[in-house]
Amino acid sequence: EALLDHVDASMVIAVSADDTHGHVEVGMGGAAMGRGTPLPGAACGGSPGTVGAAPGGGGDSPRRGLLADGYESALLQQHDHAHRSCSRSLDGTPVLAAITQLPTPDVAHLAELATLLQEASPAQQDHIVQLLLADGYVRGLMDAFAQAEDLEDTESLHNLFRIVRSMVLLNEGTLIELLVSDACVQGALGALEYDPEAPSKASHREFLQRQAVWKQVVPIANEEVVARIHQTFRVGYLKDVVLPRVLDDHAYSTLSSIMLFNYVEILTAFQRDNEVLPAVFRKLKSLPPASSEWVDLLLFLQEVCSQAKNLQNQQRASLFNSMVRLGLLDFVTTSLEVGRESPALYGEVDGRAAGSAQPADAADANGGGGVGASEGGG
To answer: Does pTM surpass 0.70?
Structure first.
Protein backbone atom coordinates (compact mmCIF):
# COMPACT_ATOMS: atom_id res chain seq x y z
CA GLU A 1 0.00 0.00 0.00
CA ALA A 2 2.88 2.34 0.77
CA LEU A 3 4.47 1.64 -2.63
CA LEU A 4 1.18 2.07 -4.47
CA ASP A 5 1.14 5.68 -3.26
CA HIS A 6 4.06 6.36 -5.64
CA VAL A 7 2.96 4.57 -8.82
CA ASP A 8 0.08 4.94 -11.24
CA ALA A 9 -3.18 3.43 -10.11
CA SER A 10 -3.28 1.18 -13.18
CA MET A 11 -0.08 -0.63 -12.10
CA VAL A 12 0.10 -3.62 -9.74
CA ILE A 13 2.87 -4.26 -7.22
CA ALA A 14 3.63 -7.92 -6.53
CA VAL A 15 6.21 -9.44 -4.19
CA SER A 16 7.79 -12.74 -5.17
CA ALA A 17 7.86 -15.11 -2.21
CA ASP A 18 10.31 -17.46 -3.92
CA ASP A 19 13.07 -14.93 -4.46
CA THR A 20 15.61 -15.23 -1.64
CA HIS A 21 16.76 -11.62 -2.19
CA GLY A 22 13.31 -10.05 -2.13
CA HIS A 23 12.35 -7.64 -4.89
CA VAL A 24 9.36 -5.77 -6.18
CA GLU A 25 7.86 -6.64 -9.55
CA VAL A 26 5.74 -4.15 -11.44
CA GLY A 27 3.15 -5.24 -13.98
CA MET A 28 0.56 -3.43 -16.07
CA GLY A 29 -3.15 -4.22 -15.92
CA GLY A 30 -5.58 -5.45 -13.33
CA ALA A 31 -4.20 -8.95 -12.72
CA ALA A 32 -1.56 -9.61 -10.08
CA MET A 33 1.92 -10.48 -11.23
CA GLY A 34 2.54 -13.12 -8.63
CA ARG A 35 1.24 -14.87 -5.58
CA GLY A 36 -0.44 -12.51 -3.08
CA THR A 37 2.02 -11.86 -0.28
CA PRO A 38 1.26 -9.98 2.91
CA LEU A 39 2.90 -6.62 3.53
CA PRO A 40 3.80 -6.37 7.22
CA GLY A 41 1.74 -3.95 9.26
CA ALA A 42 4.90 -2.57 10.83
CA ALA A 43 6.19 -1.50 7.42
CA CYS A 44 3.14 0.61 6.60
CA GLY A 45 1.97 1.66 10.03
CA GLY A 46 -1.26 -0.33 9.72
CA SER A 47 -2.68 -3.82 9.63
CA PRO A 48 -1.21 -6.46 7.31
CA GLY A 49 -2.47 -6.36 3.73
CA THR A 50 -1.85 -8.45 0.64
CA VAL A 51 0.27 -6.91 -2.11
CA GLY A 52 -0.55 -8.42 -5.46
CA ALA A 53 -4.19 -9.23 -4.83
CA ALA A 54 -5.44 -6.72 -7.36
CA PRO A 55 -9.00 -6.74 -8.69
CA GLY A 56 -9.44 -9.94 -10.62
CA GLY A 57 -6.21 -11.33 -9.22
CA GLY A 58 -7.75 -13.44 -6.49
CA GLY A 59 -4.82 -13.18 -4.09
CA ASP A 60 -4.52 -15.46 -1.06
CA SER A 61 -5.48 -14.34 2.43
CA PRO A 62 -2.65 -12.63 4.34
CA ARG A 63 -0.08 -15.02 5.80
CA ARG A 64 2.77 -13.25 7.56
CA GLY A 65 4.77 -16.47 7.70
CA LEU A 66 5.48 -16.26 3.95
CA LEU A 67 7.44 -13.07 4.46
CA ALA A 68 10.84 -13.81 5.93
CA ASP A 69 12.90 -11.21 7.76
CA GLY A 70 14.92 -10.61 4.61
CA TYR A 71 11.81 -9.74 2.62
CA GLU A 72 10.56 -7.43 5.36
CA SER A 73 13.88 -5.62 5.44
CA ALA A 74 13.87 -5.23 1.64
CA LEU A 75 10.32 -3.86 1.64
CA LEU A 76 11.10 -1.44 4.46
CA GLN A 77 14.10 -0.15 2.51
CA GLN A 78 12.01 0.20 -0.65
CA HIS A 79 9.28 1.99 1.31
CA ASP A 80 11.75 4.45 2.83
CA HIS A 81 13.39 5.09 -0.55
CA ALA A 82 9.99 5.81 -2.14
CA HIS A 83 9.23 8.41 0.52
CA ARG A 84 12.69 9.98 0.26
CA SER A 85 12.63 10.23 -3.54
CA CYS A 86 9.10 10.85 -4.73
CA SER A 87 10.51 12.42 -7.91
CA ARG A 88 11.59 9.03 -9.29
CA SER A 89 9.57 6.10 -10.55
CA LEU A 90 10.35 2.52 -9.51
CA ASP A 91 12.59 2.00 -12.55
CA GLY A 92 14.65 5.09 -11.68
CA THR A 93 13.19 7.36 -14.39
CA PRO A 94 12.83 10.96 -13.17
CA VAL A 95 9.24 12.10 -12.78
CA LEU A 96 9.07 15.91 -12.95
CA ALA A 97 6.45 17.60 -10.83
CA ALA A 98 3.96 20.01 -12.36
CA ILE A 99 5.14 23.62 -12.33
CA THR A 100 2.70 25.84 -10.47
CA GLN A 101 4.78 29.00 -10.17
CA LEU A 102 7.55 30.69 -12.16
CA PRO A 103 10.48 32.61 -10.70
CA THR A 104 9.92 36.33 -10.25
CA PRO A 105 10.62 38.12 -13.57
CA ASP A 106 13.54 40.21 -12.34
CA VAL A 107 17.29 40.27 -12.90
CA ALA A 108 18.02 38.18 -9.81
CA HIS A 109 16.00 35.19 -11.08
CA LEU A 110 16.81 35.20 -14.81
CA ALA A 111 19.27 32.29 -14.63
CA GLU A 112 16.74 30.16 -12.75
CA LEU A 113 14.01 30.94 -15.28
CA ALA A 114 16.30 30.25 -18.27
CA THR A 115 17.20 26.83 -16.86
CA LEU A 116 13.58 26.03 -16.10
CA LEU A 117 12.41 26.86 -19.63
CA GLN A 118 15.24 24.93 -21.29
CA GLU A 119 14.80 21.77 -19.20
CA ALA A 120 11.00 21.67 -19.03
CA SER A 121 9.38 18.46 -20.21
CA PRO A 122 6.59 18.52 -22.82
CA ALA A 123 4.07 17.82 -20.06
CA GLN A 124 5.29 20.84 -18.09
CA GLN A 125 5.31 23.23 -21.05
CA ASP A 126 1.53 23.66 -21.10
CA HIS A 127 1.62 24.84 -17.49
CA ILE A 128 4.56 27.14 -18.23
CA VAL A 129 2.73 28.78 -21.15
CA GLN A 130 -0.27 29.56 -18.95
CA LEU A 131 1.99 31.07 -16.30
CA LEU A 132 3.89 33.15 -18.87
CA LEU A 133 0.61 34.50 -20.24
CA ALA A 134 -0.43 35.70 -16.79
CA ASP A 135 -0.96 39.44 -16.59
CA GLY A 136 2.29 41.38 -16.49
CA TYR A 137 4.79 38.48 -16.48
CA VAL A 138 6.25 38.99 -19.96
CA ARG A 139 6.15 42.75 -19.43
CA GLY A 140 8.20 42.19 -16.26
CA LEU A 141 10.80 40.35 -18.33
CA MET A 142 10.97 43.28 -20.74
CA ASP A 143 11.59 45.61 -17.79
CA ALA A 144 14.32 43.27 -16.56
CA PHE A 145 15.92 43.44 -20.02
CA ALA A 146 15.95 47.25 -19.93
CA GLN A 147 17.55 47.15 -16.49
CA ALA A 148 20.18 44.58 -17.50
CA GLU A 149 21.07 46.53 -20.63
CA ASP A 150 21.42 49.76 -18.67
CA LEU A 151 23.77 47.99 -16.24
CA GLU A 152 25.61 46.23 -19.10
CA ASP A 153 24.99 42.97 -17.26
CA THR A 154 26.21 40.52 -19.90
CA GLU A 155 25.28 37.38 -17.99
CA SER A 156 21.70 38.55 -17.49
CA LEU A 157 21.43 39.59 -21.13
CA HIS A 158 22.58 36.14 -22.24
CA ASN A 159 20.01 34.57 -19.93
CA LEU A 160 17.31 36.79 -21.43
CA PHE A 161 18.30 35.63 -24.90
CA ARG A 162 17.83 32.03 -23.77
CA ILE A 163 14.51 32.90 -22.11
CA VAL A 164 13.01 34.63 -25.16
CA ARG A 165 14.31 31.92 -27.49
CA SER A 166 12.76 29.23 -25.28
CA MET A 167 9.48 31.14 -25.22
CA VAL A 168 9.39 31.10 -29.03
CA LEU A 169 10.24 27.39 -29.06
CA LEU A 170 7.26 26.64 -26.83
CA ASN A 171 5.24 26.86 -30.08
CA GLU A 172 2.36 28.76 -28.55
CA GLY A 173 0.86 31.24 -31.02
CA THR A 174 -0.66 33.47 -28.35
CA LEU A 175 2.70 33.81 -26.60
CA ILE A 176 4.51 34.63 -29.85
CA GLU A 177 1.89 37.24 -30.71
CA LEU A 178 2.49 38.80 -27.29
CA LEU A 179 6.25 38.92 -27.89
CA VAL A 180 5.82 40.80 -31.19
CA SER A 181 3.14 43.16 -29.85
CA ASP A 182 3.82 46.89 -29.68
CA ALA A 183 4.39 46.67 -25.93
CA CYS A 184 7.00 43.88 -26.04
CA VAL A 185 8.60 43.72 -29.49
CA GLN A 186 11.48 46.08 -28.74
CA GLY A 187 12.41 44.23 -25.57
CA ALA A 188 12.02 40.79 -27.14
CA LEU A 189 14.11 41.60 -30.21
CA GLY A 190 16.58 43.44 -27.99
CA ALA A 191 17.07 40.32 -25.87
CA LEU A 192 17.59 38.26 -29.04
CA GLU A 193 20.45 40.55 -30.01
CA TYR A 194 22.57 39.09 -27.19
CA ASP A 195 23.18 35.59 -28.51
CA PRO A 196 26.12 34.23 -26.47
CA GLU A 197 27.20 32.06 -29.42
CA ALA A 198 27.16 34.86 -32.00
CA PRO A 199 30.49 36.47 -32.93
CA SER A 200 29.02 39.97 -32.60
CA LYS A 201 25.88 41.67 -31.35
CA ALA A 202 23.00 41.92 -33.82
CA SER A 203 21.07 45.12 -34.58
CA HIS A 204 17.46 44.00 -34.90
CA ARG A 205 15.95 47.01 -33.16
CA GLU A 206 17.91 49.47 -35.26
CA PHE A 207 16.74 47.76 -38.44
CA LEU A 208 13.08 47.89 -37.40
CA GLN A 209 13.29 51.50 -36.27
CA ARG A 210 15.36 53.00 -39.09
CA GLN A 211 15.17 50.76 -42.15
CA ALA A 212 11.81 49.00 -41.92
CA VAL A 213 9.65 51.93 -43.00
CA TRP A 214 5.88 51.65 -42.64
CA LYS A 215 4.23 53.17 -45.69
CA GLN A 216 0.59 52.88 -46.71
CA VAL A 217 0.05 53.10 -50.45
CA VAL A 218 -3.57 54.01 -49.69
CA PRO A 219 -5.15 54.83 -46.32
CA ILE A 220 -6.30 51.78 -44.35
CA ALA A 221 -8.92 52.83 -41.82
CA ASN A 222 -9.30 49.41 -40.19
CA GLU A 223 -6.87 49.48 -37.24
CA GLU A 224 -7.10 45.72 -36.75
CA VAL A 225 -5.88 45.16 -40.31
CA VAL A 226 -2.99 47.58 -39.74
CA ALA A 227 -2.06 45.70 -36.56
CA ARG A 228 -2.16 42.40 -38.48
CA ILE A 229 0.18 43.83 -41.11
CA HIS A 230 2.69 44.94 -38.47
CA GLN A 231 2.43 41.59 -36.70
CA THR A 232 2.97 39.64 -39.92
CA PHE A 233 6.10 41.59 -40.75
CA ARG A 234 7.55 41.10 -37.26
CA VAL A 235 6.82 37.37 -37.20
CA GLY A 236 8.39 37.01 -40.65
CA TYR A 237 11.45 38.92 -39.47
CA LEU A 238 11.68 36.69 -36.40
CA LYS A 239 11.39 33.55 -38.54
CA ASP A 240 13.68 34.47 -41.42
CA VAL A 241 16.28 36.77 -39.84
CA VAL A 242 16.48 36.49 -36.06
CA LEU A 243 16.10 32.78 -35.28
CA PRO A 244 16.37 30.72 -38.47
CA ARG A 245 19.22 28.54 -37.20
CA VAL A 246 17.60 27.61 -33.88
CA LEU A 247 14.01 26.98 -34.97
CA ASP A 248 12.88 23.38 -35.06
CA ASP A 249 10.23 22.17 -37.48
CA HIS A 250 7.42 22.73 -35.00
CA ALA A 251 8.43 26.31 -34.18
CA TYR A 252 8.95 27.14 -37.86
CA SER A 253 5.51 25.74 -38.64
CA THR A 254 3.93 27.75 -35.82
CA LEU A 255 5.43 31.02 -37.07
CA SER A 256 4.44 30.24 -40.65
CA SER A 257 0.89 29.43 -39.52
CA ILE A 258 0.58 32.79 -37.77
CA MET A 259 1.65 34.57 -40.95
CA LEU A 260 -0.69 32.48 -43.11
CA PHE A 261 -3.65 33.17 -40.84
CA ASN A 262 -2.84 36.90 -40.89
CA TYR A 263 -2.63 36.99 -44.69
CA VAL A 264 -6.04 35.38 -44.95
CA GLU A 265 -7.51 37.82 -42.43
CA ILE A 266 -6.00 40.83 -44.22
CA LEU A 267 -7.16 39.82 -47.69
CA THR A 268 -10.61 38.92 -46.39
CA ALA A 269 -10.84 42.36 -44.80
CA PHE A 270 -9.80 43.98 -48.10
CA GLN A 271 -12.57 42.09 -49.87
CA ARG A 272 -15.16 43.28 -47.35
CA ASP A 273 -13.85 46.86 -47.45
CA ASN A 274 -15.30 48.86 -50.31
CA GLU A 275 -12.55 51.48 -50.16
CA VAL A 276 -9.07 49.93 -50.16
CA LEU A 277 -8.85 48.13 -53.52
CA PRO A 278 -10.93 50.69 -55.45
CA ALA A 279 -8.72 53.45 -54.00
CA VAL A 280 -5.62 51.61 -55.27
CA PHE A 281 -6.91 51.47 -58.84
CA ARG A 282 -8.17 55.05 -58.79
CA LYS A 283 -4.76 56.22 -57.67
CA LEU A 284 -3.01 54.11 -60.33
CA LYS A 285 -5.09 55.78 -63.04
CA SER A 286 -4.18 59.25 -61.78
CA LEU A 287 -0.40 58.72 -61.71
CA PRO A 288 2.12 58.61 -64.58
CA PRO A 289 3.37 55.06 -65.25
CA ALA A 290 6.80 54.19 -63.85
CA SER A 291 6.68 56.92 -61.20
CA SER A 292 7.82 55.76 -57.76
CA GLU A 293 4.32 56.01 -56.28
CA TRP A 294 2.82 54.16 -59.27
CA VAL A 295 5.39 51.39 -58.80
CA ASP A 296 4.56 51.12 -55.08
CA LEU A 297 0.89 50.66 -55.91
CA LEU A 298 1.67 48.00 -58.50
CA LEU A 299 3.91 46.17 -56.04
CA PHE A 300 1.07 46.27 -53.53
CA LEU A 301 -1.17 44.53 -56.06
CA GLN A 302 1.59 42.04 -56.76
CA GLU A 303 1.74 41.17 -53.05
CA VAL A 304 -2.05 40.82 -52.88
CA CYS A 305 -2.04 38.44 -55.85
CA SER A 306 0.87 36.47 -54.40
CA GLN A 307 -0.78 35.95 -51.02
CA ALA A 308 -4.17 35.17 -52.56
CA LYS A 309 -2.92 31.59 -53.00
CA ASN A 310 -3.64 31.11 -49.28
CA LEU A 311 -7.35 31.76 -49.73
CA GLN A 312 -10.06 29.19 -50.35
CA ASN A 313 -10.80 28.64 -54.04
CA GLN A 314 -14.07 30.56 -53.94
CA GLN A 315 -12.55 33.49 -52.04
CA ARG A 316 -9.55 33.61 -54.36
CA ALA A 317 -11.73 33.60 -57.48
CA SER A 318 -13.91 36.36 -56.00
CA LEU A 319 -10.87 38.51 -55.20
CA PHE A 320 -9.34 38.15 -58.68
CA ASN A 321 -12.71 38.85 -60.34
CA SER A 322 -13.05 42.03 -58.30
CA MET A 323 -9.58 43.24 -59.26
CA VAL A 324 -10.09 42.39 -62.93
CA ARG A 325 -13.29 44.44 -62.95
CA LEU A 326 -11.33 47.32 -61.39
CA GLY A 327 -8.76 47.18 -64.21
CA LEU A 328 -5.99 44.85 -63.00
CA LEU A 329 -5.16 43.46 -66.48
CA ASP A 330 -4.89 46.96 -67.94
CA PHE A 331 -2.22 47.90 -65.41
CA VAL A 332 -0.37 44.60 -65.95
CA THR A 333 -0.27 45.44 -69.67
CA THR A 334 0.97 48.96 -68.92
CA SER A 335 3.72 47.64 -66.65
CA LEU A 336 4.95 45.38 -69.46
CA GLU A 337 4.94 48.31 -71.89
CA VAL A 338 6.92 50.49 -69.49
CA GLY A 339 9.82 48.06 -69.75
CA ARG A 340 13.17 48.91 -68.25
CA GLU A 341 12.12 52.41 -67.29
CA SER A 342 11.10 50.98 -63.92
CA PRO A 343 13.78 48.58 -62.62
CA ALA A 344 11.71 47.81 -59.51
CA LEU A 345 9.16 46.04 -61.70
CA TYR A 346 11.88 43.61 -62.79
CA GLY A 347 13.13 42.63 -59.36
CA GLU A 348 15.68 45.40 -58.97
CA VAL A 349 15.84 47.69 -55.96
CA ASP A 350 17.51 51.11 -55.91
CA GLY A 351 19.26 50.45 -59.20
CA ARG A 352 20.90 47.25 -57.94
CA ALA A 353 20.12 43.84 -59.37
CA ALA A 354 18.31 41.48 -57.05
CA GLY A 355 21.34 39.22 -56.98
CA SER A 356 23.75 41.95 -55.93
CA ALA A 357 25.08 42.23 -52.42
CA GLN A 358 22.69 43.62 -49.80
CA PRO A 359 22.78 43.61 -46.02
CA ALA A 360 21.59 40.18 -44.88
CA ASP A 361 18.93 41.54 -42.55
CA ALA A 362 17.45 43.84 -45.17
CA ALA A 363 17.49 41.20 -47.90
CA ASP A 364 15.75 38.66 -45.70
CA ALA A 365 13.25 41.13 -44.35
CA ASN A 366 12.14 42.12 -47.83
CA GLY A 367 10.26 38.85 -48.08
CA GLY A 368 8.60 39.21 -44.72
CA GLY A 369 6.52 42.34 -45.27
CA GLY A 370 2.80 42.25 -44.78
CA VAL A 371 0.17 43.01 -47.42
CA GLY A 372 -0.54 46.71 -47.60
CA ALA A 373 2.82 47.82 -46.27
CA SER A 374 6.32 48.46 -47.49
CA GLU A 375 8.07 47.72 -44.22
CA GLY A 376 11.63 46.76 -44.97
CA GLY A 377 10.91 47.19 -48.66
CA GLY A 378 8.46 44.23 -48.72
So the answer is: no
